[in-house]
From TrEMBL:
This is ATP-binding cassette sub-family G member 4. The chain crosses the membrane at residues 379-397, 409-429. One of its GO terms (cellular component) is plasma membrane. PROSITE patterns: ABC_TRANSPORTER_1 (PS00211), ABC_TRANSPORTER_2 (PS50893). SUPFAM superfamilies: P-loop containing nucleoside triphosphate hydrolases. The keyword Lipid biosynthesis does not apply. Keywords: ATP-binding, Membrane, Nucleotide-binding, Transmembrane, Transmembrane helix, Transport. Belongs to the ABC transporter superfamily. ABCG family. Eye pigment precursor importer (TC 3.A.1.204) subfamily. The keyword Transport applies. GO terms for molecular function: ABC-type transporter activity; ATP binding; ATP hydrolysis activity.
Amino acid sequence: SSSNNHVVHNNNNNNTAHYQSHNDIEAHHVRPFQNLPPCEPVDIQFKDVSYCVSMGFRKGQKEILHKVNGKFPGSQLIAIMGPSGAGKSTLLDVLSGYRRTGVEGAVYVNGRIRNLNSFRRMTCYITQQDQLQTLLTVLENMRIAADLKLGAEISKHEKESIIEDILTVLGLYEHQYTITSRLSGGQKKRLSIALELINNPTIMFLDEPTTGLDSFSCNQVVDLLKQLAKQGRTIIATIHQPSAKLFQEFDQVYVLSSGECMYQGCTNSLVPFLQSVDMPCPVYHNPADYVIELACGEHGMEKIQTMVMEMGNGESTDWFGDKRKVLKLEQLRKKYPLKKIIEQNDNLHATSQWHQLEVLIKRGIIKGKRDATLTHLRIGVNISIAAMLGFLFIDAGNEGSRVLDNYNLLFSILMHHMMATMMLTVLTCKRSRIWDHLKITDREFSFFSVPTEMGVL
């Protein structure tokens, strides 16, 4: 097919797929999408959120988050910062709804208690590790995501228009026929974002999107997120230790230390806040690095508690810059009437189970064709087993005294087909189970579709 020809062409002749072009995304010039409707801003607030995990039998529980509070306004790029083990990813998981067991407190969406089913339809979650189908091209990944996310009522032409629009804006259009495994780190991260943009989420959660990227790729990804936030999306990302330039790209920052909020507000207000609590940031020092040093306790644990008390564990809004944009719950409920945020729809999947199964089987066939090693192993194993059984039970069917041998032959054939299929499924399942688990949680396809696809293939 022409698609496969493009793949071969890219694999053999286009070595630039290994590297990011400086023209992939023009800095600060990401145009609005033409085929995606504009997003209405969504405010997220949370109060007294705690999260506990079990330490094992008779070992009790450990509290990871300690009654934290926070306000994340709409159309903002928000960073959740803190040292390792501070609870950044845990808070992100709780806010996104991926963690529900052991969670206490309330999460509000536009002033109302979060309805998890409605909330998941307007959100997406992008993990730290890019969970992509590496044997597929960029375009094939996008088409599969569009078939699963958009539903059958959207025509093929409309889906192709949306895909082309997203790939163009994110600087991936020139690489649409490139195998995903050949993309650079920054391109893979942009592809992860592109896949989630297909159903136009209003809220995007990202777990350390800059991890493993060079400085140029980091700037590209964060600049892209900044532009997406300006188009009406609420973008919340955990980030470990950004550079000073990268730190200034974020609109708001939320700093955690041992599960408590040390600071919440504008990035530009962080230095004045530190000055107000007698912990001035040294001249020519990256404020992000300095606040992480404070959060680690390098300057004393009492300073952490001073900052937590000053912020009211996230309740204070004194450092948000324009405080008029930080609305109370009652004001948010007035601004966003109920009919605009709740749509009664019990079906959380965009397509039927049969359509999901059809798409997944097509995906599996393409991957099987591309992964020639596995196909050759299957053929070789079957030929070897057939030759061995044929040699052991030769002429067994012509002798009445060897009836038991016939039974043994049939049993051996049955066990071979069962165990060979089972082991191949186990070996290949490990590589895709994380991706499939995330897509099941994101309601792209049902739990029934995944094992059925594996059984068919």
